[in-house]
Amino acid sequence: MQITDARVFVGGPGKNYVTLKILTDAGVYGLGDATLNNRETLPAAYLRDYLIPNLIGMDPRNSEDIWQFFYRGAYFRRGPIAMAALGAIDMALWDIKAKLAGLPLYQLFGGKSREGAMVYAHATGADLDDLMDSIAWYVEQGYQAVRVQCGIPGMPSASYAVPEHKGARRHYITDYAGIRPKLEIWETDRYMRFMPDALAEIRARFGPRLHILHDVHHRLLPREAAEFAKAVEPVRLFWMEDPTPAEDQDALRLVRQHSTTPIAIGEVFNAIWDCNRLIEDELIDFIRVAATYAGGITPVKRIVDLAGLHHVRTGFHGAPSHSPICMAAHAHLNAWAPNFGIQEYLVLGTPECDALFPSEHRMENGMVLVSDAPGLGVDFDETEAARYSYEPGSHPVVRLPDGTMWNY
Ligand code: GCO
Ligand code: MG
Fold first, then answer.
1. d(Cα 357, Cα 360) in Å, to the nearest integer?
2. Among 371, 367, 298, which Cα is nearest to 106's?
3. pLDDT for 48-101, tens place per residue?
4. Closest by Cα among 214, 149, 213 to 184
5. How confident is the model at residue 171, as a pLDDT?
6. CATH topology for 109-376?
């Protein structure tokens, strides 16, 4: 059996998805997601110029050897661009394998460990009242877990993932049109004085049962993160995410020593080598890798197994950065993973997105119910895809009030 062709599509409804389709001489095809948020043309070029010409003629069933060929075979390894491209190949090969077996992918991992996988939604508000309304809306929809982000009083501009104006909250996505980024001004002092009390008010309003998550988005210094984690302990967060930038992993040791607030990290990780020490030293509670950015299902399964040895649960990244193909890969991993924790999930379900990626994965009462169709259980409509093309975008950049560059 041979791979005969592979094609890359860039574009989508309101979002550039990078979709890979691998074709075989057996008539079965596989789909993968190589979307690297706001850098979409780069994994597409890596696929078209280097990976696909090598892929043609390979036996698609040898997904492990193909992964090793592209990983070990590249002298300059890793990094988000290469790993997103490799991640798409790996997903597509698992899709093919499961279709050949006539089974939903989770069966190849070991079957279902649960009926539904709990997800968390993004509630966001320009101020605390606005955020309370947003949380209430998600609770009414049946969500059991909500990530909460709030505008900070006196902050010169909207901070991470919050709208500039009240009421714009439900489908707020942190992307902006054009190559030139929007500027956000960040003030740690205002955040530290406001956010712990705001989280306490949210807990008081919604009671002990709601799972409350919060994303610090890499904004704090290690000592500040430790202070924050300690201050929010009474709120009993489900997790505090990315308290500090991921480069200095010893920072998490400091945070850990000072508090029992659960720590989640990993959405920017590309390999098991970015998180093996954090997992083995039990410095984190949730690992947030994504099947796209971390190089596919093959390496993510290894990370999940390592995490399981150290009481670390999964909380895969699921911002709108990923297409429904990556989210389908996560749905199968989540159905199987013995150490499943939670899945980030944004309601993408616009009619346009559903038409481009038809699927039977379902959302009910804040849980994803995995599809039983053979393979990943998601398709890609090429006629629909022809309606879209690449639109340049950028993440915002962040500066302190004096102009110093800070972390987005
Ligand atoms: C999250 C993330 C995202 C990122 C985005 C970057 O937890 O969902 O922090 O919102 O900012 O995916 O491309
Ligand atoms: Mg995050």
1. 10
2. 371
3. 999 999 999 999 999 999 999 999 999 999 999 999 999 999 999 999 999 999
4. 149
5. 53
6. TIM Barrel (3.20.20)
Helix, coil or strand: residue 405: strand
Q: Which atom of ligand 1 is nearest to the CA of 175?
A: 13
217 among known catalytic residues:
yes
Break the chain into its structural domains and give their ranges.
3-103, 109-376
- The third-level CATH classification (topology) of the domain covering 3-103 is Enolase-like; domain 1 (3.30.390)
* 138 is a catalytic site residue: no
Which residue out of 215, 268, 327 has the highest number of ligand 1 atoms within 8 Å of its CB and is therefore the one to mutate? 215
Query: To the nearest 5 percent, what fractions of the chain are helix, strand and coil?
Result: 35, 20, 45
Could you tell me where the DSSP H helices lie in 18-102?
Answer: 41-46, 52-55, 63-72, 80-101
| Range from 32-36, 256-260, 304-308, 316-320 carrying the lowest mean pLDDT | 316-320
Identify the CA nearest to 198 among candidates 134, 136, 127.
127
Which one from 122, 217, 332, 361 is the annotated catalytic residue? 217
Residue 319 CA to ligand 1 centre (angstroms): 6
Residue 170: the pLDDT is: 53
| Plot region of 70 (φ>0 → left; ψ -120 to 50 → alpha; else → beta) | alpha
